[in-house]
Amino acid sequence: MKKVAWLALTLVMGLGLVACGDEVMVEHPYNEGTHIIPMPREMEVQEEGSFTLSKNISFVAPEGELTEVAKFFADKVKTSTGFNWQIIGESKNAKQEIALEIVGADVVPNAEGYILEVSKEGIKIQGQTPRGIFWGLQSLLQLLPAEIESPEVVRNVAWTLPYVSIKDEPRFGYRGMHLDPCRHFITVEETKKLIDIMSMLKINTMHWHLTEDQGWRIESKVYPRLTEIASKRIEGDGSTYGPYFYTQEEIKDIVAYAKARYVVVMPEIEFPGHNVGVLAAYPELGCWGKDFPYEVRNIWGVSDEVLCAGNDEVFEFAKNILDEIIPLFDSEYIHIGGDEAPKRIWAKCPKCQARIKAEGLKDEYELQSYFIHRIEEIVLSHGKKMIGWEEILEGGLAPSAIVMSWTGEKGGITSANMGHDVIMCPSSEGLYHDHYQGDYHIEPQAIGGYSTLDKVYKYNPMPEAIDADKRHHVLGVQGNHWSEYFYEPWQVEYHAFPRMLAVAEVAWTPLEKKDFADFERRVQNMQKRLDYHDIRYYIPQPEQEGGSLNTVAFVDPVTLKFTTTNSVDKIIYTLDGSEPTLKNGITYGEPLTFNEDAELKIRSVVLGGSMSPVRTIKVLRQTFGPAEAQVGDEGYKPGIRFSYKADHYFKSVEEVLDLPADSLMVVEGGKMSECGLPFYKESRLEHLMSNVNHYGAIYEGYINFPEDAVYRLSSLHHKVWIDDQLVIDNEGEVTKTPRHDTSIALAQGLHKVKVVSIGRIEGGWPTFWNRIGIQWQRIGVDEGMTYIPDDAYYSSAK
């Protein structure tokens, strides 16, 4: 009844809005109820009564920082409402005012907390600090219709909010969003757009990962080669990525922009690993010395090449670069990386071994600890606190270090129980948002993993294994956005949202107040707000059980059932070849049964009207394709025919197929799983483009299919033909995970197969890392996908 009464009142009050004249107010279902994210600690909504904003409202704010806060929100509200609110120092008419008031800790105990009261007496927000009042104003905006976020004036919306009383404060003081502009650059404009959303969600820290093997992204005037050389890389296809970096003025601008929104920008400068970019610019800082031909790394993963811990010049570099960079930021924390620093090169390096001996260290792990201690001294000299990834535990933890626990919770648990502050962002618990959030067969390429919205939401950053008297060491939680596979700017947004909405609530809302069903309801309103910010968030596509297929073969009638990983308003589809829209789409209800060929186009729709990409599914009625022969027939022998040309970069499958026969090396009767070439020509020179063993290969022969069945086929090779029919086409893709599985009806026996594979680096992923072969599965049989065994491959002896 409370919701019904409030909705009815909203409609009545909306129709009477003076600012809208005689226009008819439009009520949207996504605006029903209250929809603040993150959910406040305490909120009481009155069953009756509401407050209507108009052009006559004023902010009451004393001079100083609160005036700036009031101006920020007055400007924002003016954009969508057209109201030009005044800011005054003293109250004149409380019933037409939004009063901002600083109070003592006895009233609002938490520095980021606030009290928000909306009643017939007006609107009042109290906080111990301007930051707390700022968060209260963000909650006030979320009590209004989503259209308050519109970049232009909206005339047909009632700017009405319920009488409400909120007492709120965050569960954790650190609430972070991590961005990686190193693998793929994020422009200043895009970064600011993301900061706007962080601020809306009360995310108070932007963790900015600015240095990497694949690129250095900060202008340095002390070490100019970092921007001349380390800001760009040669990609696998020979093209140049970059130069991309932020000038020092751009960094100051972003820091100031974030500060105005109460978001702190924390830089990450990596030591000692993830520094191939630095070594390419200043090779004398590496263990191999100044004559080694380091190149900015163009593949993902972990490089063995790290800064030389035995070289005093490295620590001089560290001091100089940190002395230059740290003053650009106002964060109390400086992140120094410390992760994924292999010890193999240190074990061989005379300088590193001399350092171990001179310092009385036990091994290379203690050498890493020594390295981190020296970096800590530099950070402390600036009055800052040092944060590092959990690997800084190796060999002994620096005294004042804060640990960011990322592989799982173990590092955080260990550190907290040792008395060190920790920040939880375990990939195992859904906090790595470069992971898939839906079926990888139909989602954009990602690094792997599976991190759904409900998994993120259910995470509790306070593991039971942390001792009760050490729990205060858990500072907070963070969502991470590594950009290896964010090939387009929109993909950062796509991976971040709505999962960062869940992180915001995990970080802010008391555990006992969390409610996933209600959260999903509130997400529907937030999605509309994201629309107004031009955020391309994830909308789940309709998925099939057992792994989605866009080519569905069948012999007997087939039934397709669709679900979505997150809640949506509805699924719509067409069968006439047209793209489904809100006007022509048929609403999906029951599973769809097919007896004949069809082209199904299907997509999801959220409550605000935005839609997922369209899936086009070809449903094909087939008979079992006849086999050419049977095992044991004359003229067929075990093994595959493997033809290849090495040391040549192939741009396309067509180039491989056009090779003259006499230019190819040929292996007859080879085992499919063993027919491949090594990644590098010379192991010591790994990661140098000149050392990559590019090749093109053709596999030809037959596969023995064991019975009449409809088979699901999958492969990471570039193209696969069965019986001269192209069944898998991965060309143009980064072939890391299979996104073009197919199905086909085949009779028992030998069927011709042809495969083309190209050895190259695609978007940072070396295809050499892919397993050779084709996977199969009989549809309708309780079995998983498996690689076709070598003994199922045959070739013609004719």
Report what the structure shows.
By secondary structure, the chain is an alpha/beta fold. Among the domains are: about 1-170, 2-Layer Sandwich (Chitobiase, domain 2); about 545-620, Immunoglobulin-like, CATH 2.60.40; about 635-795, Toxin - Anthrax Protective Antigen,domain 1 (Toxin - Anthrax Protective Antigen, domain 1, Alpha-Beta Complex). Helix content is about 25%, strand content about 25%. It contains 17 helices and 44 strands. An 8-stranded parallel beta barrel has the order 8-9-14-15-16-17-18-21, surrounded by 4 helices. Strands 31, 32, 33, 34, 36, 37, 39 and 44 form an 8-stranded antiparallel β-sheet that branches. The chain has a 7-stranded mixed β-sheet with strand order 1-7-5-6-4-2-3, covered by helices on one side. A hairpin with a 2-residue loop joins strand 40 (about 760) and strand 41 (about 765). Helix 2 runs parallel beside helix 3, helix 4 (about 190-200) runs parallel beside helix 6 (about 250-260) and helix 8 packs parallel to helix 11 (about 365-380). The longest helix has 18 residues, at about 365-380. The radius of gyration is 30 Å and the shape is globular. The model is unreliable at about 1-20 (pLDDT under 50).
